[in-house]
Amino acid sequence: MSVGIQAITVDFWGTLFFDGPRSDDRYRRQRLAEFETILAGAGLPISRAALERGYEASGAWLARLWSAHRDVPVEEHVRALLAAADPKVAARVDAPLLAALVDAYARPALLVPPTVDPAAPRALEALAARGYRLAVVSNTMRTPGRVLRTLLARQGLLARFAHTTFSDEVGVRKPDPAIFRQTLAALGVEPAAAVHVGDDPVLDVAGARAAGLRVVQVTARGEPATGADVTIASLEGLPEAIATLERG
Question: 7-19+114-247 in CATH: which number?
């Protein structure tokens, strides 16, 4: 017999929030334009072409890191970008200047926010009313967890979650089971009593299953349905999906 469900973990990107087309390119342009302005104002100019090369080089470094299911704070993204763009300038960046650059790097998603699943508030409210403990478990790419919390708060969703786990803050990424287990440990819930909700067949479905959770897969973006206990088109179907799992 299945253990009763006590906790539900939810992915951020592709489940709660959705980026528009070419958002990565828009974020890159905004980040580098602000870097040019900030660095020039500090008397440490770097050309846009050099910054573009640094952005690409830091992306390649991050891709290698992420492929090993590891992560770092965005401060390390910025250091890697500057070191690749102009090592001499990078060596002269002090703590206040680094903080300004990190802020510019982190905030593009706040200026043109991603869209939220319109069913998310109702679904989360319904699940919280049933007594489930809710948490976010998400990889972060170049936008840090602290910004994702702000996006959740702006939509009135952050207060619904007892815990939020973001890969840049814990150093491990889905599909590594450790990120799920860390979250459940914070909630005080065993994997057999938890369900993960996400869109990606590998990061969410396979990762959560490896950690011992049941899985509801959201296929809003056309992801192939592979191995989940229940599949739904959007979060509108989540309360019933959880009820289905409870019935066994």
Answer: 3.40.50.1000
